[in-house]
Amino acid sequence: MLVLLAFIIIFHITSAALLFVATIDNAWWVGDNFSVDVWRVCRNNSNCTEINESFSDYATLQAVQASMILSTILCCIAFFIFLLQLFRLKQGERFVLTSIIQLMSCLCVMIGASIYTDRRQDFHNNNAEYSSYMMEEGRYGYSFILAWVAFAFTFISGLMYLVLRKRK
User: Fold this and answer.
1) Distance between CA 21 and CA 8 in Å, rounded?
2) Residues 114, 73: Cα–Cα separation, whole Å
3) 96-125 and 58-88 are packed helices; what angle lies between their axes, rounded to 10 degrees?
4) pLDDT tens sequence across 114-135
């Protein structure tokens, strides 16, 4: 049982780390001379411009930002609740709340990454100052991929907590 708990703790911490990197790092859409995330656009990896209200789909991008931040916060809260429930609740009641919060984190990261996937082309096409060099030569970056990996990890973690609640 201790090995299983250690594995779940490591898996959960890995999920949180993936969410932090995917949310913060500037690599959702990359090319040879630029990188874009949900916060800023960087040319030549040094000349960075914050994405603000002048961005045509700013409200949609804010939804991506909010859902990624919320998923990270929920994942951290689920970990702390897991630690509290580990010693406080009797068997059969353990980890249900942790599982629910972790699955909500999973849902939030899925929403954020899905919105970005669906609207990415509109983000770049509707903003003349960005679209001239981003559309033709770009590709999804590692932060975008990490967001989808974090989705899978948080989903599996949420399911593991449901299974673990019945273990002795």
Assistant:
1) 20
2) 19
3) 170
4) 998 888 766 666 555 555 545 5
